[in-house]
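2024-03-11 09:14:02 DEBUG pipeline.ingest accepted 1 chain
2024-03-11 09:14:02 DEBUG pipeline.ingest length=467
2024-03-11 09:14:03 DEBUG pipeline.predict start
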Amino acid sequence: MQRRLAPIQLFRPVSHQRRDQVIQELGRASELGRDYVLLVLLSCIIASTGLALNSAAVIIGAMLISPLMSPILGLGLAVLRTDVGNAGRALATLTMGVILSVAVSAMLGAFPTVTGVNFLEALPSEIVTRTRPTAFDLAVALAGGAAAAYALAQPNLSAALPGVAIATALMPPLCVVGLGIGLGRPDISVGAGLLFLANFVAITFAGSIVFRAVGFPSASALPDRNGARIAQIIPLVLLLLVAVPLVAFTAQIIRDVRENQAIHSTLVNQLSHVSDSTLVGFDKSWTGDHLNIVASIRSPEELQYQDAIAVQEALAERLDEPVALVFLIVPVTRLDPLAPPTHTPRPEVARPPTTSPTPTHTALPSPTALPTYTPAPTATTVPTATPVSYAVIGATGGRGVFFRHLPGMSPIVTALRDGTRVQLTGERVESDGRTWVEVILEDGRVGWVAESYLVPLSRFQDPATGD
């Protein structure tokens, strides 16, 4: 005869004596007392300070001190046993801890407003990460709640409880809620509040499941079965309600990551055709029905207008949506100590004398010899000035004027400030009810400017000196 293999039991059951001890321990830990209030206050102060300082080590210390895990596990066990009395005490104790934590952290968050020293003007990463809960946080809370319940039930696994306290992170989200209230940032408070709610519901649900798996009697084994099934279903219903927005947030984050990767790869590929250009970073935002992308790049030379158009079209095609692109170009100068620059002397320009030369004497004349007079050279030819066609930008009220690629409302190449000198080519075109003049900039670029914003220079005026 073949032997039957014993079924594998994932959770090791506990004895009746151990079950009674756990029920008594959680009952005492779920009571509101002086020690509980003191630990909540201290852990809240430590966690709020660690969040403000962006110190993970300080935040971990606050997690180890926080007593919020005990009433949550007590609530999970009370729900399993439909123990209304212990469930009410655990819920009241947890509620008091939540109120104290939020109140203390809110006062700390309001400190910059009172003193005028806003040290939280730029939110630290430890705060920002707790304002965007995802389904992964829910999974961690479920695993942490199961580990906490199992370690508490097994007397030889109590050393694992500190690690569970760090993983579940109950106190930091509450402190972020309070800091958001003190700073007047409801967006921070809502996100962190959802994270704490997810942790609370997940730990309660996972704890009740594990307690039942290790042998704690459920309501079906007790004489009073009124509403037992409803009471046990409540944590599951709450878990599903919390999971819906977390899954939606996770899907949105995944879409954002994919979009950022597509934007980054497209920018890098397009800029590879521009010599020695490097992508520094980019920001994006939605305006109406199109995506705004502001890309910062380092380049030793200025990008041409056609390059920006090509990159914008490539982004729109890759993302399959309208894109408005702006380049912020950081000029780069390369200096190599191993190859010092060579000095090229500037050619000397001979300037005509401004006054008649004064005759020099090598010796005093004798009294009998009168000095001879040498007349100053007279100019035989007066140079005539060559007429030039220059103008300056003006009459814009300090706003400047757009330098366009073509006459009319064509793409803008750059903006010209008042006082900018341009050379006129003599070409004029009527478009959009205006007269457009073709000009040449000092760097050689050719484009069009509205004639009403041009102030002509003197006919024989030198544009370089103004003389």
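2024-03-11 09:14:41 DEBUG pipeline.report DSSP finds twelve helices and ten strands in the chain.
2024-03-11 09:14:41 DEBUG pipeline.predict end
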